[in-house]
Sequence to fold (481 residues):
Amino acid sequence: MQASHQNKQFINGTWITAVDGGELPLVNPATEEILGHISFGNEKDAALAIDAAEAAFKTWSKTTPYYRAEILKKAANYLRDNLETIAHDMVLESGKPLLEARGEWTVAANLFEWYAEEGKRAYGRVIPTSRIDKRSSVILQPMGIIGIITAWNFPAYNPARAWAAALAAGCTVVAKPSENTPLSAYHLMEALIHAGLPPGVLNLLIADAAPGGEAMLNDKRLKKISFTGSARVGKILMDGASRTHTKLSLELGGNAPVVIFDDVDVDAIAKAASIARFRNNGQVCVAPQRFYVHKNIYDQFAERLSGYVSQLKVGSGFEEGVNVGPLITARQRDSVFDLLTKSKTERAEVLTGGNRPEHLEKGYFMQPAVVGNLDQSSSLARNEIFGPVLPLFSFDDLDDALAKANDTEYGLAAYAFTDNLKTAIKVSEGLEFGIVGINEWAPHGTELPFGGWKYSGQGHESGSEGLYEYMEKKLISIGIG
Ligand code: ADP
Fold:
């Protein structure tokens, strides 16, 4: 693989340094070493990117979905061919275990391929009319220039699902990935360049978030911002979007409940939970978070779970057998430690973990923790943790479980485990969340709609719903009288 990015931005078909010459150090979260310096732009670079996307839209939006599909499929194959190199860079910048990085790149490639095909199926509708002298149909057209702002927790998956859908729809893009994980974004960009993406169709803006975001919000040429990140920034975007009537797709995190009924295999669920909760160190918006365990099995579950969690191996993502890497930044680590400390003042009991691992001198590590003796008012129930802490709660019956599980501002993912069909149906219908996993931990996929209720967001990513986020519907009514 020929790396050409040199830590620059890619705007209008060229790798360029930031207009004002800004730079930012990129830190390895496992060692705290500086990996290099990236070119770091501001609102001026954003303006250049929007100019380029505007010019490119004139031609890209007129290409066929078949033409666009060929480019997306070539990009998918480039990612597959270079999997080891790009997974290595993802571990360097994010700290996640190599196995998880490989899996994420595979999914990113699959997203490019899936949207390549789905773009061909953006059918409209012919509607039988109520009048003899008219014919009516609805067609779907590319929305325009899209700003795509993504978070660091999935440095390839987050951008890939939005980029692929927007490009397949015929839109042009100003993409601003997280400044914490630019290396993966460079690789995604290089895949598209290698595949023959014309200049200006997707512009990679590596820029200071606030001025970059403001420039996008203030520019009427940009029709939508697709955002994956915190509820805090989501609100900034919602407020700002009213100025220019910019449309929004928002994926804003969650606080997922896991309801475990007393008819399950307790040991098997405890073991699986110890893996699912700590995937990517809990830095996952659909991460199983608040564990509600039926009172009859609470003690047994807590004991088994603590045993499994205490065996998880913490360390560098490159080390064989490591389950849990570092948190992304010192700030993120401190915020998780602070939440845990606060919960202790609220009488929480730490059953295992929660300290700095003694064998690791550097890096933003935390020993995975299980915490009990909690109620609904606890800080660990009220906040999205985004770190390696598993809070345990108990419940009495289905109604109690649903009341507690739904007692949150968030509404992204929820999970329930039961062997009883009636309970499964009632709990899945009663949970106020956009995604519900029954007896499974991964209720998401390239072909499935991913979106949250309540504070968790607006709109959907992935699946055919994800494609339509980037298309406008147009009613065409033809008079033939
Ligand atoms: P986190 O705090 O977990 O990093 P954020 O929501 O802050 O999550 O970041 C998600 C993405 O939003 C990143 O690409 C980040 O640079 C960007 N971002 C942060 N602040 C703003 C802002 N004011 N306007 C637009 N984008 C922002």
Summary: The chain has a mean pLDDT of 97. The radius of gyration is 23 Å. The first helix runs from residue 43 to 60.
